[in-house]
Amino acid sequence: MLVDYYALLNVPTDATSDEIHRAYRALAMRYHPDRNSDPDAAFRMTAINDAYSVLSDLTGRVRYDLQRRSSRAGGDISTPVLRAAKETVLRCGWTLLDDDGANITLEQKSRRVRVCFAERLTGVRLRTISRRFPGLSVVLAVEIEAPINLALQTVVIDLMHSCKHGPDFPDDVYRGLFAAFLV
Fold it and tell me: Residue 118: which domain range?
């Protein structure tokens, strides 16, 4: 699922370079880990930096806009599969703490999990995901590019084959949250 950088920076798709820069600065002031003690501030700041680096560069923005249009044009099964997966997870009764479009953070009592939705999971992307969240991360992926090196606290679920890669879930509550995706 392509992250909506425009929504992340809260700017329209026809925003000028100045508007993008002002939005970035405002969000950076709000979410920079030196100013914000929230545990997810560093992750959020990374996403904001990614969005700004793409949208502030003319070539990167044109490439991103083309990808965005092609992903919305249909014909690709990834978008509906990931949308259905997200809806399934959100119906499980956990509290939604954060949703940046491509990742959500859920909480239930003392349990917290970051769920990442990926059209195509590569080893590089998996390492990035594993480093961004200190607790359990679960990646729901439509396509997995082998080989991937699994981290201790990152579970990967292949949505197309209903199989899990990586460590066991810490307990039955976590297992129940993702049971719908496993046979």
Answer: 78-181
Residue 75, pLDDT score: 47
Helix (H, G, I), strand (E, B) or coil at 36: coil
8 A C-beta contact, residue 92 and residue 177: yes
Helix/strand/coil for 165: strand
**pLDDT tens column, 49-59:** 999 999 999 99
Q: Are residues 119 and 57 in the same domain?
A: no
What's the total number of domains in the chain?
Answer: 2
Residue from 153, 146, 148, 107 nearest 130 by CA: 153
- Percentages helix, strand, coil for the chain (3-state, rounded to 5) are 45, 20, 35
CATH number at residue 153: 3.40.1350
pLDDT in tens, 165-174: 989 999 999 9
- Same domain, residue pair 107 and 58: no
Which letter does DSSP use for residue 97 in this model?
A: E
